[in-house]
User: What shape does this take?
Amino acid sequence: MKKNIIVLVFLFISYIGNTQNIPNDNLDKLISNFTKELIEKKIDTICIYESYSVGSEITFDISELNEREKQELCRDELINQPVFVFWKEKGKTFLNKINSCFEYSAIEILEDELWKIYFENTNAIEKEKVKNFEYESFINGKKISSPIFRDHSYHQNFKFIVNNKIVEKYFDNFKLQNETDNFKDKRLYNINHNHNTTLKSKKIIDILENDIRNIKRNQYLIIKKR
Assistant: This one.
Protein backbone atom coordinates (compact mmCIF):
# COMPACT_ATOMS: atom_id res chain seq x y z
CA MET A 1 0.00 0.00 0.00
CA LYS A 2 2.80 2.46 0.88
CA LYS A 3 4.43 1.89 -2.51
CA ASN A 4 1.17 2.72 -4.27
CA ILE A 5 0.76 5.88 -2.20
CA ILE A 6 4.27 7.05 -3.07
CA VAL A 7 3.70 6.45 -6.79
CA LEU A 8 0.36 8.26 -6.80
CA VAL A 9 1.70 11.24 -4.86
CA PHE A 10 4.66 11.52 -7.23
CA LEU A 11 2.34 11.52 -10.25
CA PHE A 12 0.08 14.03 -8.57
CA ILE A 13 2.94 16.45 -7.88
CA SER A 14 3.99 16.19 -11.54
CA TYR A 15 0.44 16.96 -12.65
CA ILE A 16 0.12 20.11 -10.56
CA GLY A 17 3.59 21.34 -11.38
CA ASN A 18 2.87 21.18 -15.09
CA THR A 19 -0.49 22.90 -15.05
CA GLN A 20 -0.54 25.68 -12.47
CA ASN A 21 -0.67 29.20 -13.85
CA ILE A 22 2.22 30.43 -11.68
CA PRO A 23 4.45 27.90 -9.86
CA ASN A 24 3.50 27.58 -6.21
CA ASP A 25 5.53 24.92 -4.43
CA ASN A 26 3.63 25.41 -1.19
CA LEU A 27 0.24 24.85 -2.82
CA ASP A 28 1.58 21.79 -4.65
CA LYS A 29 2.73 20.32 -1.35
CA LEU A 30 -0.59 20.99 0.36
CA ILE A 31 -2.53 19.25 -2.41
CA SER A 32 -0.12 16.34 -2.44
CA ASN A 33 -0.38 15.89 1.33
CA PHE A 34 -4.18 16.13 1.28
CA THR A 35 -4.43 13.50 -1.44
CA LYS A 36 -1.99 11.23 0.40
CA GLU A 37 -4.11 11.48 3.56
CA LEU A 38 -7.22 10.41 1.65
CA ILE A 39 -5.42 7.40 0.16
CA GLU A 40 -4.04 6.40 3.57
CA LYS A 41 -7.65 6.45 4.88
CA LYS A 42 -8.43 3.76 2.24
CA ILE A 43 -10.38 6.23 0.11
CA ASP A 44 -9.98 4.92 -3.43
CA THR A 45 -12.22 7.26 -5.46
CA ILE A 46 -10.78 10.76 -5.83
CA CYS A 47 -11.04 13.56 -8.38
CA ILE A 48 -8.83 16.67 -8.46
CA TYR A 49 -10.07 19.67 -10.43
CA GLU A 50 -8.43 22.97 -11.27
CA SER A 51 -9.32 25.93 -13.48
CA TYR A 52 -7.19 28.94 -14.29
CA SER A 53 -6.38 31.56 -16.89
CA VAL A 54 -2.83 31.74 -18.19
CA GLY A 55 -1.15 35.11 -17.75
CA SER A 56 -3.97 36.83 -15.88
CA GLU A 57 -4.97 37.83 -12.37
CA ILE A 58 -8.38 38.06 -10.73
CA THR A 59 -9.52 41.52 -9.70
CA PHE A 60 -12.38 42.50 -7.40
CA ASP A 61 -13.72 45.41 -5.36
CA ILE A 62 -12.87 44.76 -1.71
CA SER A 63 -15.48 47.33 -0.66
CA GLU A 64 -18.18 44.91 -1.84
CA LEU A 65 -17.10 42.25 0.70
CA ASN A 66 -18.56 41.98 4.19
CA GLU A 67 -16.32 41.80 7.28
CA ARG A 68 -16.24 38.01 7.39
CA GLU A 69 -15.36 37.80 3.69
CA LYS A 70 -12.55 40.30 4.19
CA GLN A 71 -11.12 38.25 7.06
CA GLU A 72 -11.34 35.04 5.05
CA LEU A 73 -10.01 36.52 1.83
CA CYS A 74 -7.05 34.60 0.43
CA ARG A 75 -5.07 37.06 -1.65
CA ASP A 76 -2.97 34.22 -3.06
CA GLU A 77 -6.05 33.17 -5.03
CA LEU A 78 -5.75 36.32 -7.12
CA ILE A 79 -2.80 34.69 -8.87
CA ASN A 80 -2.94 30.97 -8.07
CA GLN A 81 -6.47 29.65 -8.27
CA PRO A 82 -7.45 27.09 -5.61
CA VAL A 83 -7.58 23.42 -6.48
CA PHE A 84 -10.69 21.40 -5.60
CA VAL A 85 -10.63 17.80 -4.43
CA PHE A 86 -13.70 15.56 -4.66
CA TRP A 87 -13.83 12.11 -3.12
CA LYS A 88 -16.27 9.36 -2.30
CA GLU A 89 -16.38 8.03 1.24
CA LYS A 90 -18.92 5.58 2.67
CA GLY A 91 -21.29 6.21 -0.21
CA LYS A 92 -21.15 10.00 0.11
CA THR A 93 -19.40 12.60 -2.05
CA PHE A 94 -17.29 15.32 -0.42
CA LEU A 95 -15.51 18.41 -1.68
CA ASN A 96 -12.68 20.46 -0.26
CA LYS A 97 -10.90 23.59 -1.46
CA ILE A 98 -7.11 23.79 -1.23
CA ASN A 99 -5.31 27.12 -1.13
CA SER A 100 -2.23 28.50 0.60
CA CYS A 101 -4.12 30.53 3.20
CA PHE A 102 -6.53 28.30 5.09
CA GLU A 103 -7.45 24.72 5.86
CA TYR A 104 -11.16 24.08 5.34
CA SER A 105 -13.64 21.47 6.52
CA ALA A 106 -15.10 19.10 3.91
CA ILE A 107 -18.43 19.89 2.27
CA GLU A 108 -20.85 17.11 1.36
CA ILE A 109 -22.14 17.20 -2.22
CA LEU A 110 -25.65 15.80 -2.35
CA GLU A 111 -25.74 15.24 -6.11
CA ASP A 112 -23.79 12.15 -7.18
CA GLU A 113 -23.89 12.61 -10.96
CA LEU A 114 -20.10 13.01 -11.15
CA TRP A 115 -19.25 9.40 -10.36
CA LYS A 116 -22.21 8.01 -12.32
CA ILE A 117 -21.09 9.73 -15.54
CA TYR A 118 -17.46 8.82 -14.96
CA PHE A 119 -17.94 5.12 -14.22
CA GLU A 120 -20.47 4.63 -17.02
CA ASN A 121 -18.00 6.14 -19.52
CA THR A 122 -14.55 5.36 -18.11
CA ASN A 123 -13.26 3.57 -21.21
CA ALA A 124 -14.51 6.29 -23.54
CA ILE A 125 -13.07 9.05 -21.35
CA GLU A 126 -9.65 7.39 -21.29
CA LYS A 127 -9.51 7.33 -25.10
CA GLU A 128 -10.99 10.77 -25.78
CA LYS A 129 -8.81 13.44 -27.37
CA VAL A 130 -9.50 17.15 -27.39
CA LYS A 131 -8.78 18.41 -30.90
CA ASN A 132 -7.22 21.76 -31.78
CA PHE A 133 -9.22 24.70 -33.04
CA GLU A 134 -9.04 24.11 -36.80
CA TYR A 135 -10.56 26.03 -39.67
CA GLU A 136 -10.97 25.15 -43.32
CA SER A 137 -9.77 27.20 -46.26
CA PHE A 138 -9.15 26.73 -49.97
CA ILE A 139 -5.68 26.99 -51.51
CA ASN A 140 -5.38 26.47 -55.26
CA GLY A 141 -8.85 25.01 -55.28
CA LYS A 142 -7.99 22.43 -52.61
CA LYS A 143 -9.69 22.43 -49.21
CA ILE A 144 -7.27 22.21 -46.29
CA SER A 145 -7.64 22.48 -42.52
CA SER A 146 -5.25 24.53 -40.39
CA PRO A 147 -4.94 24.80 -36.58
CA ILE A 148 -4.71 28.07 -34.66
CA PHE A 149 -3.75 28.62 -31.04
CA ARG A 150 -4.25 31.27 -28.39
CA ASP A 151 -1.53 32.11 -25.87
CA HIS A 152 -3.81 33.37 -23.09
CA SER A 153 -6.78 31.13 -22.55
CA TYR A 154 -8.90 29.64 -19.78
CA HIS A 155 -8.01 26.08 -18.77
CA GLN A 156 -9.90 23.36 -16.94
CA ASN A 157 -8.26 20.07 -15.95
CA PHE A 158 -9.31 17.01 -13.99
CA LYS A 159 -7.56 13.99 -12.62
CA PHE A 160 -9.32 10.85 -11.36
CA ILE A 161 -7.54 8.47 -9.01
CA VAL A 162 -9.65 5.32 -8.72
CA ASN A 163 -8.23 2.12 -7.25
CA ASN A 164 -4.65 3.30 -7.99
CA LYS A 165 -5.55 4.03 -11.62
CA ILE A 166 -5.11 7.58 -12.91
CA VAL A 167 -7.12 9.22 -15.71
CA GLU A 168 -6.58 12.90 -16.52
CA LYS A 169 -7.78 15.38 -19.13
CA TYR A 170 -6.81 18.92 -20.03
CA PHE A 171 -9.17 21.45 -21.61
CA ASP A 172 -8.19 24.72 -23.25
CA ASN A 173 -11.40 26.69 -23.68
CA PHE A 174 -10.20 28.21 -26.94
CA LYS A 175 -10.45 24.74 -28.50
CA LEU A 176 -14.09 24.61 -27.42
CA GLN A 177 -15.07 27.81 -29.19
CA ASN A 178 -17.24 27.66 -32.28
CA GLU A 179 -15.62 30.66 -33.92
CA THR A 180 -12.92 33.31 -33.46
CA ASP A 181 -13.41 37.03 -33.08
CA ASN A 182 -11.66 38.94 -35.85
CA PHE A 183 -8.64 36.70 -36.28
CA LYS A 184 -6.52 38.77 -38.68
CA ASP A 185 -9.76 40.56 -39.65
CA LYS A 186 -11.45 37.25 -40.39
CA ARG A 187 -14.08 35.20 -38.57
CA LEU A 188 -12.93 31.59 -38.51
CA TYR A 189 -15.07 28.61 -37.59
CA ASN A 190 -13.82 25.65 -35.59
CA ILE A 191 -14.50 22.41 -37.45
CA ASN A 192 -13.77 20.48 -34.21
CA HIS A 193 -16.25 22.41 -32.09
CA ASN A 194 -18.94 19.72 -32.05
CA HIS A 195 -16.42 16.96 -31.39
CA ASN A 196 -14.83 18.77 -28.44
CA THR A 197 -18.02 19.97 -26.79
CA THR A 198 -19.74 16.55 -26.89
CA LEU A 199 -16.91 14.60 -25.26
CA LYS A 200 -17.84 12.67 -22.13
CA SER A 201 -14.85 14.25 -20.42
CA LYS A 202 -16.31 17.70 -21.24
CA LYS A 203 -19.48 16.60 -19.47
CA ILE A 204 -17.34 15.78 -16.44
CA ILE A 205 -15.79 19.27 -16.58
CA ASP A 206 -19.26 20.84 -16.67
CA ILE A 207 -20.39 18.82 -13.64
CA LEU A 208 -17.28 19.73 -11.63
CA GLU A 209 -17.62 23.41 -12.49
CA ASN A 210 -21.30 23.40 -11.65
CA ASP A 211 -20.69 21.72 -8.26
CA ILE A 212 -18.08 24.33 -7.37
CA ARG A 213 -20.23 27.27 -8.47
CA ASN A 214 -23.12 25.99 -6.34
CA ILE A 215 -21.00 26.23 -3.19
CA LYS A 216 -21.26 29.68 -1.60
CA ARG A 217 -18.21 31.38 -0.11
CA ASN A 218 -19.49 31.11 3.47
CA GLN A 219 -19.93 27.34 3.13
CA TYR A 220 -16.15 26.88 3.19
CA LEU A 221 -15.67 26.73 6.94
CA ILE A 222 -12.13 27.51 8.00
CA ILE A 223 -10.51 25.07 10.38
CA LYS A 224 -7.31 27.05 10.79
CA LYS A 225 -5.03 29.54 9.10
CA ARG A 226 -1.96 28.04 7.48
